[in-house]
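Amino Acid Chain and Its Fold in Token Form
===========================================
Purpose: to set a sequence beside its fold so the mapping can be learned.
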Amino acid sequence: MSYHDHSDERALQRIGKCLADGGSVALVSDAGTPLISDPGYRLVRYVQDAGFAVYPLPGPCAAIAALSVSGLPTDRFLFEGFLPAREVARSNRLAALAAEPMTLIFYEAPHRIEASLQAMIEAFGGEREAVLAREITKTFETIRRGALAALAQFVSADSNQQKGEIVIIVAGKPRGEQEISSDVSTWLLRLAQELPAKQAAAVVADCTGLRKNQLYEQLLELKRERGG
């Protein structure tokens, strides 16, 4: 039987009855490890709360497989799964991650890969290092590391890179960037009242020598804090 995000209480009850009658149940996924960007945790809780044991059987996981071959730091990482499908929600989520120092891991659907890479460029900057890991362990596997801008160009130029199961890994925000003072933050917010965010960041970058992308990320963060 299938079990997914839209399964109702009756599905849980059928599985619970099978266990209560002495049967055993295996939760499997058609790709990767169950419950990793895959429904099922409600079933696990339901079964455990009913007094039955749940045993894990480790299997393949695209996120960890991609991370292991990414060449990016693996000591601390943040698994984000799939980004929101809607453009505004996706941009807002990426903006919230722009200052994150941990390595970031995303899953993405083939028909959204180009849009997501462009959104990442806007949020993180085109020079941020990233890895495209596609169709891992399969015949047409792709593992490619480079700047986000270069990866976006690579994917756009080859329709084959817009197919299959895709993992994007993005390096965390580089450590040691210059701190942005409260005065500079004030200038950013004031200019942003008159100019688009990117243009405001560019003007302040020209005046201070700070990186435009860093200032842009700071401005987005300031706006979020103020509910703007």
Q: What stands out?
A: The two ends are 46 Å apart (CA to CA). The longest helix spans residues 212-225. The CA atoms of residues 55 and 135 lie 28 Å apart.
